[in-house]
UniProtKB/TrEMBL annotation:
One of its GO terms (biological process) is regulation of neuronal synaptic plasticity. One of its GO terms (cellular component) is dendrite. Belongs to the neurochondrin family. InterPro entries: ARM-type_fold, Neurochondrin. This is Neurochondrin-like protein.
Length: 723
């Protein structure tokens, strides 16, 4: 049966022509909504009858005399914002609502501002609302309300916190100043609180810290890191309840994840004693949550468990630094014992999980379970990678299960991505975590062991990683499209003194996507296969397919300086495979790849950039990443020499390109002893592979004697004697 009150109201609104008549209709709506329960269908009728352009006009009005009208308009708007299917249609009110939040200045606006924040809260809960909010700089405006302490500043903070929970990626992207202002105010309030609100704030700050801009150096953020660290030291070293400790531990974990132990020791002023207390607490929490608990019980405490995992992962990496070596041996023994207990708990859980879940494909339907297992795989991988003493016997029992589980997750994500790409260009977010990416560093550690490597080969890991590389490359290309373009005059800018692109801090702040790191790890795995299983290369088609994949990728990044490490991994893995899979220069992909290889090796060294040409100088493009590139460059140059021995046309190209001539010219200028042994050996190998058939024997002998290249000297003399 139709609601007569609603019918009367709809009729009134439909017939209203003047402002007075429209206001009368709105008065009637508020009266009905207060007096009786309205069915959703009736609400939709009222929604359709309202002149929303008139409502917006009232909301935007600035005349003090119209405040009553504005109040009625906002009251009406807030009612319909509570209906999810109607709320989506009201997102275009967000700009006006944000402006109202900025204009409130006293408690006289209490009713209006309460409705304003109610509307904003409902609208920002929708995807459409958040998109419009970001476009209208909602975060900056809400931070201003909170930072200045305007009326309803706490409500503004709660909206920021809620946004940070669902829009953590990019919320403050390229807007670090706003983030800095927000954290300065938050940390100040956090330091003032002494009751339970302090721990509620700890949880809020932890959520917001997940949104910290990654495109700026850590040193940009001043004052507040030290304030938060000081408060955490006071809290976690005090006698507090379990409920209070959890949010503090989660906040500490997020600070460590954002800044790292070393930075927080210097800038955050955390003490070594607090550091060890923190790690011990994390280890205790892991054992309390995991040991003798069901999976359902464990998942209920997943946020605290993930935070504890993050703390010990960061600490294990920190254990490899010179700073850690200076710590007291007794403290080290105690913390290592605590880590051992946590490690055992994780391994035991995974063993039990493996035995109880024989069919890994069935587990993919439970996202929470998959996320937790992925976290266990990650922490286990970090232990295997960073801690040389940690290699339990159980790893051989676990390895097949962990690899199979990780592969199943990847295959499901890959199917989703492929399906989406066929349908549209919508940005894709995986429904499952990516444990295979997390497991790659551990696989690299395990590969030198013959039995474990054979196990991985039997699981067809090389074929899986080929597909996985293509999957990650698609994600990487999607990520690239979202980035600001690199200036085409990057080299000229640097040489002219503009260090914006090339300061160490700026370089350290560049966001490296997970896909880029994954591709680098995959390249390293294939390099290991070539080194350790060379007879497999010709027998397994996956290697030839991966080489073609490398050919297709190199051209897209070989002129982009920010990807020089990724380029180096492609070049070296490709040239190593090419040694066993020779190809003719008639293939344009092969020719272009060799050209890119030579360019990569050539660009690394440039003696013309030095005031003293007697010294070897690493070029600007490579200098910052040289610690990551040096060994790879040496390996690649040595492998290029081997390729030349098998493919004469490659040697001819090296000479015709002018690369060998530049090397000879450089070696004739650089003083003896100014080249490190590894670089000298790589250069000697390359020149030896070219030989006197392509290079002047007198010049070769002169260079060989100048730099003590005995192999090159003997080879040149032998070739001369044969003539």
């Amino acid at each position: 049966m139709a609601n007569k009150s609603v019918e009367m109201c709809v009729a009134s609104l439909s017939q209203a022509k003047t402002v007075t008549e429209k206001m009368a209709g709105l008065f009637l709506i508020t009266k009905i909504l207060k007096a009786e329960e309205i069915e959703p269908s009736d609400l939709k009728q009222l929604f359709a009858a309202i002149d929303w352009a008139f409502i917006k006009l009232l909301v935007k009005s600035s005349d003090n005399e119209s405040s009553m009208y504005k109040s009625i308009a906002l009251s009406t708007l807030s009612v319909f914002c509570r209906v999810p299917e109607l709320c989506k249609s009201l997102s275009d009110f967000i700009p006006e609502l944000l402006d109202m939040a900025l204009s409130a200045d006293s408690e006289d606006d209490l009713l209006i501002m309460s409705d304003t924040y109610d509307c904003l809260e409902a609208l920002l809960a929708t995807k459409e609302g958040r998109k419009i909010a970001v476009e209208n700089k909602a975060v900056e405006k809400l931070v201003r309300v909170y930072d200045v302490g305007m009326f309803k500043d706490e409500e503004a903070l709660q909206l920021i916190v809620k946004l940070s929970k669902v829009e953590s990626e990019g919320l403050f992207h390229r807007n670090p100043e706003t983030f800095q202002r927000l954290l300065n105010r938050l940390s100040s309030e956090f330091a003032k609180e002494i009751d339970d609100k302090k721990f509620a704030m700890a949880s809020e700050i932890a959520h917001i810290l997940r949104c910290m801009p990654s495109d700026v150096p850590k040193t940009f953020f001043k004052d507040w890191p030290a304030v938060i660290c000081n408060e955490l030291m006071g809290v976690l070293c005090s006698k507090i309840t379990y409920q209070q400790r959890d949010p503090a531990l989660i906040l500490a974990s997020q600070m460590i994840e954002n800044f790292g132990f070393e930075y927080l020791q210097t800038e955050g002023k955390i003490t070594s004693q607090f550091l060890f207390i923190l790690v011990n607490l994390a280890c205790i929490e892991i054992r309390m949550i995991i040991e003798d608990r069901s999976l359902e019980q464990i998942v209920q405490n997943s946020r605290l468990l993930m935070a504890s995992f993050s703390i010990i992962e960061s600490f294990i990496v920190y254990m490899g630094t010179p700073t850690y070596e200076k710590f007291d041996e007794k403290q080290k023994e105690q913390v290592y014992a605590a880590l051992g207990g946590a490690e055992t708990a994780v391994v035991c859980f995974l063993l039990k999980f493996k035995d109880e879940n024989k069919q890994t494909s069935k587990l993919m339907s439970n996202t929470e379970t998959t996320c937790f297992v992925a976290a266990c795989i990650r922490v286990l991988s970090v232990w295997l990678t960073e801690d040389p003493h940690f290699l339990p016997d159980d790893v051989d029992v676990l390895l097949p299960f962990l690899v199979e589980y990780s592969i199943k997750c990847f295959e499901k994500n890959n199917r989703e991505l492929t399906s989406l790409k066929k349908q549209s260009t919508t940005k894709w977010t995986s429904s499952l975590p990516d444990p295979l990416r997390l497991l790659l560093p551990a696989i690299l550690i395990l590969m030198p062991d013959n039995a474990r490597r054979k196990m991985l080969i039997e699981m067809d890991l090389q074929r899986v990683l080929l597909d996985y590389a293509k999957y990650q490359w698609r994600l990487f290309r999607d990520w690239q499209k979202e980035q600001l373009p690199t200036p085409s005059d990057w080299l000229g800018a640097s040489l002219s003194g503009d260090t914006r692109l090339f300061s160490d801090d700026e370089s350290a702040g560049r966001e490296v996507p997970e896909s880029e790191a994954a591709i680098i790890s995959i390249c390293t795995v294939f390099m290991n296969f070539v080194s350790m299983e060379p007879f497999l290369i010709n027998d397994d088609p996956a290697f030839k397919a991966f080489l073609k994949f490398v050919f297709s990728c190199v051209g897209d990044i070989n002129k982009k300086p920010e990807y020089v490490v990724l380029l180096g991994n492609f070049v070296v893995s490709g040239i190593m495979l090419l040694r066993y899979l020779p190809a003719e220069d008639s293939d344009p992909m092969v020719f272009n790849f060799i050209s890119s290889c030579v360019r990569f090796f050539w660009d690394a060294i440039d003696f013309e950039e030095s005031n003293d040409r007697r010294k070897l100088v690493i070029s600007i493009r490579y200098k910052r990443q040289w610690p990551e590139l040096a060994e790879m460059w040496i390996l690649g140059m040595g492998t290029l020499a081997k390729v030349i021995e098998n493919s004469a046309w490659v040697g001819d190209f090296v000479v015709d390109s002018g690369f060998s001539g530049e090397i000879m010219k450089m070696l004739q200028n650089v003083m003896h002893g100014e080249i490190d042994i590894g670089t000298k050996t790589a250069l000697e190998d390359l020149l030896s592979s070219l030989g006197t058939k392509r290079l002047n024997s007198r010049d070769l002998l002169k260079v060989a004697r100048r730099h003590g290249m005995s192999m090159l000297s003997k080879m040149t003399q032998a070739e001369e004697n044969e003539k």
